[in-house]
Amino acid sequence: MRWQLKRIRWRSCVGLFWLSCLGISYSALASTAMQRHSAPVAGMQLPLANSAAGSAWAGNGGGTAGSLSAWQPGPLAIGSGMPSAPGTALTLSRPLMAGRTVNASAAIAGDDHLTQLGFDTGRLTVLVGTAEGSARPAAEHALAAVPGNLFHGQVLTDYQASMAAARIGSGASPGVGVGQVRIVSDGRDRRDARFLSLDTRHAVLTVMDFQRADQRVGQGLDLRFAVADTRVGVSRLVSSHGAQWESLTADRAVARLGGRLGVQLERRRNPAFTVADDTRVRLTFSRRFGRPCCNGLAADADDAAAPAEAQRRYGLIAAAAGGALLGMAAVSSGSEQSDSAERFPSQNRAARAALVDINPRSVAENREYGGSVYLNQDRSYSWAGHVAGDATSVAFNPHALVPDGTRATAAYHTHGATMAGFLNEFFSRQDIIFFNFYQVDGYLGTPQGRMFLYDLRSNSTAQFFDAGGSPFVLPN
C-alpha cells in the first residue's frame, strides 16, 4: 500500500530399527542473514550413538519360541538413521496341529507402537496388524531412518494404521507377497500403501505405491540380497513432486569384532527444500546377543541357529508390511499444498523468494500484490499468496492464506510501478498499521527493486543489502 501525499486510498488488507555406533556425514547447508546473502557453505557433522541390542530364544521342541530385542540410543545420536527413542521388539511363535503356526510380534519406540499377528499353513502366510503413535516434525523418527521433513513441511500428529498382507511360497521355492497398509489421522486425508514382494533364499525385492485421497503421491523400492556372508540393501523413496531418498547399505560379519561391520551411503534430494539436499556416508557396527531370528536371507547363517521356516516366512511378509507403513508415513503425511510448497531455512529467505517471484509482474502491471510468509511444523518457512490488488492497495488477511497446521509470521507486498505523488520506495503509515493489526512482520518490494523489513517486535525497519554491501535489488 502506498501513501498518497494529497489523500489516502486504503482498504483493510502459513532401517526399521537402525543400530549405529559411529556415523560421519557431509551436508551442504544454505546460510542466510537479513542483510547479506552468501553462498552455501559445507558443514561436517559427527553423529555418535552408543547403541545396544539383545535377544534371547526360549522354547522346548513344539512349544512357544520367541525373541526379545532392545535398543538404546546414545546421548549424541544426532544423525539420520539412528533411533531417536529407546525401544523394544518382541516376536513369538507357536506351532499348531498339521504344520500350522501362529506368529505375533510387537515393537514399541517412544510414542509409536506396532503390533502384527500372522498365521502360517506351510504354503500360505497371512498377516494383519495395527500401529499408532504421534509422529514428530524432527529430522528423526523413532522407528524410521528417513527424515519425515524431507518430503513435506507438515507431519502427522496422532495417527492410527492398519495392515493386511499375504505370502504364497513354501520351503526353498520363491515366495510372492502382497499387502496394503492404511493410515488415518484427524484433519488429514486417508493414505494407502500397496506393496508387492518377491523373495528367494538369497534376495528380497519389495515395490511400493503410495496414495493420498486416492491420488498417487509416491513410490518406493527396497532390495535386500546376500552374497556369502555379506548383506547388501538398496532402498529408494520418490514423491510425485520430485523429492527422493536413496540408501545403499552393506555389512559383513567380522569374527574378530564379534559382530557385523558395514557402511551406509545415503542421498536426499528435494527441489522444494534444497537445504535438506545432502549426501552422507556412515560406518556401522552391530552385534547380536543370544540367538535372534534372522531376516530370511542366507547370509544370516552366521547366527547360532536358523529360525523355524514358518518364522522365516512370517518375518518376510511382516518386514514388507512394516516397510510400506514407514515409507508411506514419510512420503505422504503432508498435503498437496505442503508437498509442493518451496521451503526455506528462514523467514527472510522465504519473503525474498516471494518478492523475487512477483515484483517484476507487479511493476509491469502497476498493481500491488501481497501474501503471507508462514512457519511450517518442521521449523522451515514458506510463502503463499500473490493476492492481486490495484494500483495503490491490496487487501488480504495473512492468517487466512496459510495451510492448516502452519502459522503466518509475516506479510509481504509490492508497490507496483513508480507513481508521482505516492510514497513508492518505503512503507506507508497504513502499511505499518496493517502489520500491527494482524501482528505479523512485514516485507516490501518497491518499484526500484529495493526490499525492506518491518520488525513487529522492535517496531523498526531495515533495508536488505547484498554481500558486497550494496542495496539488494529485486527484479523489477
How do the helices and strands line up, and which of them pair or pack?
Elements: E1 24-29, E2 41-45, E3 65-71, E4 87-95, E5 101-109, E6 112-120, E7 124-134, E8 158-168, E9 175-184, E10 191-199, E11 203-212, E12 215-227, E13 230-239, E14 244-254, E15 259-269, E16 278-286, H1 309-332, H2 336-340, H3 347-365, E17 369-375, E18 381-388, E19 407-414, H4 429-438, E20 441-445, E21 451-455, E22 460-463
Parallel strand pairs: 19-20
Antiparallel strand pairs: 1-2, 1-16, 3-4, 4-5, 5-6, 6-7, 7-8, 8-9, 9-10, 10-11, 11-12, 12-13, 13-14, 14-15, 15-16, 17-18, 17-19, 20-21, 21-22
Summarize the entry for a quick read:
The protein is mainly β. Helices cover 12% and strands 39% of the residues.
Helix fraction, binned, reads: 10-25%
Mean pLDDT: 78
How many individual helices? 4
- CATH architectural group of the largest domain: Beta Barrel
The CATH class of the largest domain is: Mainly Beta
How much of the residues is beta strand, in percent? 35-45%
Distance between the termini: 17 Å
Give the beta-strand count.
22
Q: What is the ordering of alpha helices and beta strands?
A: EEEEEEEEEEEEEEEEHHHEEEHEEE
CATH overall fold name of the largest domain: Porin
Strand order, sheet with most strands: 2-1-16-15-14-13-12-11-10-9-8-7-6-5-4-3
Instruction: Characterize the quaternary organization of these chains.
Output: single chain
Flag low-confidence runs.
3-61, 74-83, 137-144, 291-307
- State Rg: 27 Å
For the report, how would you describe the main beta sheet? 16 strands, antiparallel
